[in-house]
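Researcher: Going back to the complex we discussed earlier. I've cleaned up the inputs and rechecked each line, so this should be the final set. Can you rerun the prediction on the complete assembly and write out the structure?
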Amino acid sequence: MALIVHKYGGTSMGSTERISQVAKRVAKWARAGHQMVVVPSAMSGETNRLLALAKALSPAQVTQDHLRELDMLAATGEQASSALLAIALQAEGMPAISYAGWQVPVRTNDAYTKARIESIDDQRVRADLNAGKVVIITGFQGVDDAGHVTTLGRGGSDTSAVAVAAALKANECLIYTDVDGVYTTDPRVVPEARRLKTVSFEEMLEMASLGSKVLQIRSVEFAGKYKVPLRVLSSFTPWDIDIHEEAASGTLITFEEDEQMEQAVVSGIAFNRDEAKISIMGVPDKPGIAYQILGAVAQANIEVDMIIQNISKDGKTDFSFTVHRNDYARAMDLLKAHVLPSLGAPEVMGDAKICKVSIVGIGMRSHVGVASKMFRSLSEEGINIQMISTSEIKTSVVIDEKYMELAVRALHKAFDLDQNQA
Amino acid sequence: MALIVHKYGGTSMGSTERISQVAKRVAKWARAGHQMVVVPSAMSGETNRLLALAKALSPAQVTQDHLRELDMLAATGEQASSALLAIALQAEGMPAISYAGWQVPVRTNDAYTKARIESIDDQRVRADLNAGKVVIITGFQGVDDAGHVTTLGRGGSDTSAVAVAAALKANECLIYTDVDGVYTTDPRVVPEARRLKTVSFEEMLEMASLGSKVLQIRSVEFAGKYKVPLRVLSSFTPWDIDIHEEAASGTLITFEEDEQMEQAVVSGIAFNRDEAKISIMGVPDKPGIAYQILGAVAQANIEVDMIIQNISKDGKTDFSFTVHRNDYARAMDLLKAHVLPSLGAPEVMGDAKICKVSIVGIGMRSHVGVASKMFRSLSEEGINIQMISTSEIKTSVVIDEKYMELAVRALHKAFDLDQNQA
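Model: Rerun complete. Updated structure for the full complex:
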């Protein structure tokens, strides 16, 4: 007997028919002898419907008072779907009880609309589990110290599920989603892409931050912090498939070092074309220059991803960075108007037609030559590398966006991702 | 400066446009210097939408577990509308905060779907009022001692508003509704019917129980118990009418004895045709007979309204009572099958084509001859009285339903209701 947490997204909870399917699946797990906790999202579309009503009444405001009410409003979506799931389980003959965040309680700070979980009390939930009930806990929400309702922000239900699993020391947290796991790369780009049976926490973190939108990045961080075994699996398999088959499906995100012993050097290829690159050439190489440039950008609320500064020549250096493509024009205008004049007439160049391709793998830590293999492979395809950035388990390059698919396919093949069993 | 409670029903909260109007009206009262507490219902249709989802998942069950989840589900409707009203008030530049029942808290017993309010903590609300905020409290719901969400049952928002007003010792509780007050009788039947400027608590109670569906009867009881001045007024007047005109509109339900000094003898005529009459003739007049008949009826969950037993003759008596018309056939079948056989072959007669007409007036206490004036007036119209029942401030008669409108008009005129200023 294990303590298992299931998390179901809005699509899985999208209609009474689908809620019924979720109830049948959860009941199957409970009948197999597991203690079950379920964290559902709101029915798909519900959160948007509620926030549209708020928007019709008032322009968006950033006052605490306004954000507090948005949270009161949005939190009703998960409370309703949780109660409906409890009702569906009871209809299956399975005792069940639903709790809103404040009832558990799931304690958060008071950063309305983007609160962070601080602690979860497990007493009430454990008592119900011991009494043989399935316990349903609303995702996405909590309560602050003053008793106000908070929400964790979009996608927060993943984080709720992982936090609940951590608090209860659950044996595993299963995130049911509309993909059947984590892949070596996007199967729409590389048909040979394989589902990973396991992936390390650190790799998952890099993949998530690089645009693999399988899991909300905060939930992966949380899982890493509390060593919660996390499994991403499909909510589209029939509810009545064999439980052992289901339990082994999807991708397990692991935290045990020795489980990663046989890990491939590179686990996956991530990519995105959401970025644009900006280079300032001939910048005087003196202290404070980086801040002078990026400080202005940050003040305009423009987020910077990669930053590269090469060694200087003749007291001048070139300074490059990438921003989200949506912020590109604004960033260029800002630099030309306010930054360049004070830098001694350097030149600014920008390019929005770029993409970032990254290889991710925990094995890179202990294997030399991984980056150079990446560069060779790209060079063999005649792809010019514009920028390079590395971390312990990731190497990213910026290239012309027209080569993106070619690069991803070449790298996928070069690192044998279509053949190895991860 | 006064402390005022406003209550708005589902129609008033039915769209963002209407919520905006409510916000403007409340803001007007707040700007006039009043401390404002608002108790809204869910947006019209929302509660039904939620309960239909539950019904699609599960047949109705009466287990505590099932009813608990129905309350968790239904309570989201008021939480959402309350947050929306707070947002609308903030958009008007009026500081506002919404609280769900559990946040106040509004404590109830644990009779899910029909809970009763036990106490309301005023501390948090008072602090916000003193800080200059409009406080919005969800109608219809509360929390039990174990921290489970409860609802008060349909129409419970009226009761919530009155209970909140009582807890805060509010100067007045204004119930905004789709009628503009309490009338001497239904204006659709008697065009001369007048709106009462004031009506006593006891009269209102009799009117409510007799089918004037202006206010939920429990809320009137509550208001009587705690002496909350209650005003019924229209939510359809423009929000920007003069506040003094608005404050004097509708009907005030009073509890002060001296305010009733000049009260008319009869305040209003109530009527309904929801009932059917059943008479058992020739019942042996011995102890236990009433229980033998009505016990069986009550066991079948059939509610009985009027009960009349006349003095006996030759050891036999006639026993009559009325039931809701929907229960008439079932009650007749039950009596024939299970009750009559044991009563020594009496005869049962029934009539569903009846109506009940009542005169209500606190002045009846101190004025003799009111009932006889009623009977004379009916007799002058040639209307035969089938049953009579009286209480301290009410006299009801059962007559053929075809005479209902005639009787109501005659009585309305006989007691000068179309002329006197109440």
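Model: Worth noting: The longest helix of chain A spans residues 64-91.
Researcher: Good, that matches what I expected from the previous run.
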